[in-house]
Amino acid sequence: MRIVLAGATGFIGKEVLDQCVAHNYIDHIFCLTRSPLDQKYFKGKRGHKVTEIIHNNYEEYPDSLLRRLRDEGVDGCIWALGGTGGRIDQFKNLEEAQKVGINYPIQAAEGFARQLATALSPQMMPKKKFPFRFVFVSGWGAEQDQFRSLWFWNDSRKIKGAAEKGLFEVADNSDEVQGHRCFEVIALRAGQVIQRGDAIGTILWEATVPSVAVDRLATCAIKMVLMGTGDEKKRVLENRECLGEDWAQVNTLSM
Q1: How confident is the model at residue 255 (pLDDT cuts 50, 70, 90)?
Q2: What does the alpha-carbon distance between residue 102 and residue 93 come to, in Å, rounded to a whole number?
Q3: Which CATH number is correct for 2-250, 3.90.550.10, 3.30.2000.10, 3.40.50.720, 3.40.630.30?
Q4: pLDDT for residue 84
Q5: 133 DSSP β-pair partners
């Protein structure tokens, strides 16, 4: 599989990139980034797996870029740009947070659905993955109803919810091939994303509050872009599901 990764220089994106480079079923990763990647990704036996694409305007996707990705056979995307919910303070103001959190992923999805997903029909590219999957790192408590009053994290939860709603609309409006939409969106509603720690400490944290270790979240994102949820109607994975199959049974918090 060949994927686009947005946010490769961030906390979550770096972990996703590391795991993708080591993954046997990920053939190539095209990283959309404003900043150059660490040179370690271009060295050694797996140095051929990563292509850096400097992309300064995430609200615009030129036809030349989309054609390049299409011709390279890209058949999935993991969107880790902007991180998870609860961090409005990392932006200059609410308007910037909304632009990064809502406009950026939706504009990308519209371009990918129009140019990349339509090239993956079984007739045109029988050996490629179908449909094109767009895995969006959302946030715990994402709220799609922009008029609902929330007790806490109002702005961040509504930003993630607005992004989800817009992305799902892109999927619903994508071209249909043999009774199936060619573009699929999966939202990962991760809670607090924590560093890899000692095994016991990580387990206790994940079992106590809505949270997920960054390596578990990356593993989940890669699994979803490769395989999907197994149910076309299931578009959202809550935090407990992002923890993995074993933790889905152990962690019974309502998230």
Answers
A1: very low
A2: 14
A3: 3.40.50.720
A4: 57
A5: 76, 184
